[in-house]
Amino acid sequence: MFFSAYSQKDNFRGHVSDRHDGANFPGVIVELSQNEKVVYKSQTDIDGDFSIKNVKFGIYEFKLKYIDYETYVNQEFHFNKNNKIFEFVYPSPCKESVKVCPKNHSDKLIPIVYGLPRENLVKKAKKSKVYLGGCILTDCDPKWYCKKHSIKF
User: Fold this and answer.
1) Do the domain assignments include residue 99?
2) pLDDT tens for residues 44-68?
3) For the chain, how many structural domains are there in total?
4) Looking at the structure, do residues 81 and 128 belong to the same domain, yes or no?
């Protein structure tokens, strides 16, 4: 009796472009994990392309990571013979901030204001009417501040 057991593998290729302007996105870390362990890893090149050789077909946690950007995570990424080449736009759009504190209340919340504040904003901040957030770093910066718990969200 003869048994043949093998796992199917193929190359996993893709391209990452910048959501803001559509340009190629070099330097993005691409990870495939199983059971909370990274099993395959790559990085986009100058053209925003990446390739990982000999990836076993299966279900992975897929991540795109870049310094100072929110990590994109797909918990159930299916890599199989029909899905081997992918196009990604990064960073993904931000979730809309809802005016409810993560501690589940909606009182004692004030808006976070970004940029160089003028005199009237400084006065409002001193009266705890707004929270001065400094410079805008990403589109996903927090929109609300909870005075009760000192949480930005």
Assistant:
1) no
2) 999 999 999 999 999 999 999 998 7
3) 2
4) no
